[in-house]
Design goal:
This protein is an alpha+beta fold. The chain has helices at residues 3-20, 25-35, 41-48, 54-94, 98-110, 117-131, 145-148, 185-196, 238-253, 306-312, 328-336, 349-352; strands at residues 135-136, 142-144, 168-169, 177-179, 202-211, 223-233, 259-266, 269-278, 295-304, 320-327. α1 packs antiparallel against α2, α1 runs parallel beside α4 and α6 (117-131) crosses α11. The termini are far apart. Bound molecules: 3,4-dihydroxyphenylalanine. 3,4-dihydroxyphenylalanine binds at residues 182, 184, 228, 266, 269, 272, 299-302, 323-325.
Length: 356
């Protein structure tokens, strides 16, 4: 082997060794010029051929070129390997560990949600009334002034309106629209459709959300829930009303809780009453919650006022009826002895979890 061939072999071996030391595509791009490119030993040897005679230059040049091509081919193979390695590393980093997903979803399943206390109380109340022969109805939360007040015998500017601090909805319409302040307007809807469909009598309850411009406190919320009861039939008396309230009270709160009625005023019933139940905290002995009376007020009730019958076209000489309405949130509060009703809307999972 002559000196030139030895030199070519050395250059080639060094280039391949440099190539073998490269670990990444970036390094390869960076080192390429010094391995086989412009700044490589191949290039400087090529330059040194300038002094040779043309025959020798062509012959030696061809051998050098072969060696350089062989190194270039190795570079390309190495590039393919490095690219594949880079891709594997990337996929490895992106890999979705399905084991992790399973574990995560299992711990999520443990904290699955459940019905809230108000919703489950509403469902229990509905069950009690359905067992007593009532159907369950629904009504809109946004009402015209007529449904929320006028049809219930509460004329505009009547002092009785002071009983309900009202949220008004401004729809830019001549008609006054309100967020319903009680579920009593469902009485009007129920009677209207019964008259239209000639389907009297009515034995229905209608639960739902109501709104009042109240500052929330331990016993009041600005958005709360009521359940309305309406019975319209022949020969309905106050005794039917009292018996219904008492039956409900014992069925829902248990046999040692009683109800009592006290005279009151509501524009849509005559006579009207407030109904109270034995204080569920002290069982009648007297405590702070019941102001030492042993009784807690739950809602209002009474015999349907003839003026209400007339506003929906029910003949008060043929039909009579009673209605009642009370707070669902208040029921939950009494049943579960909650000192502050605001806990119902604060969404503290430590509180909510107790009712899973
Ligand atoms: N709607 C009344 C209120 O929210 C409660 C009420 C009283 C409902 C008497 C009735 C009733 O159906 O007869 O204050």
């Amino acid at each position: 082997m002559n000196l030139n061939d030895e030199l070519i072999a050395t250059i080639t071996a060094e280039a391949l060794a440099a190539l073998a030391a490269v670990d990444t595509i970036e390094e390869l791009d960076e080192r390429f010029p010094s391995i086989v490119g412009k700044r490589s030993a191949f290039a400087s040897m090529q330059k040194s051929f300038g002094s040779l005679d043309p025959e020798q230059r062509r012959e030696l040049g061809a051998r050098l070129q072969d060696a350089r091509r062989a190194v270039e081919a190795s570079v390309e193979l190495r590039r393919i390997d490095l690219r594949a390695a880079a891709r594997t590393t990337m996929l490895e980093a992106d890999r979705l560990d399905l084991g992790d997903v399973v574990v995560a979803s299992q711990s999520w399943a443990v904290t699955l949600g459940h019905a809230g206390l108000v919703g489950s109380t509403q469902a229990e109340l509905e069950d009690v009334f359905v067992a007593m022969g009532f159907t369950v109805a629904d009504g809109p939360e946004v009402e015209s002034d007529w449904y929320n007040f006028e049809a219930l015998n509460i004329p505009p500017a009547h002092p009785a309106r002071g009983m309900w601090d009202t949220f008004y909805v401004d729809l830019g319409e001549p008609e006054t629209v309100v967020l319903r302040t009680h579920t009593s307007p469902t009485q009007i809807h129920l009677m209207e459709s019964a008259v239209a469909n000639d389907s009297l009598p009515i034995h229905s309850v209608a639960p739902g959300r109501c709104y009042r411009r109240d500052t929330p406190d331990a016993r009041h919320l600005a958005a709360f829930h009521q359940i309305e009861g309406l019975v319209v039939d022949h020969h309905i008396t106050f005794a039917d009303l009292a018996g219904t309230i008492e039956t409900f009270t014992r069925a829902y709160f248990g046999p040692d809780i009683e109800s009592r009625l006290r005279p009151a005023f509501f524009p849509f019933t005559e006579p009207s009453a407030e109904f109270e139940i034995t204080c569920t905290i002290c069982h009648g002995a007297g405590c702070r919650t019941c102001s030492n009376t042993g009784w807690i007020e739950l809602g209002g009730c009474g015999m349907i006022d003839p003026a209400v019958f007339e506003s929906v076209g029910v003949d008060p000489d043929r039909w009579s009826g009673f209605a009642f309405g009370f707070g669902i949130d208040r029921c939950a509060q009494m049943r579960h002895e909650l000192s502050d009703m605001r806990a119902l809307i604060e969404n503290d999972v430590r509180f909510l979890g107790q009712f899973a």
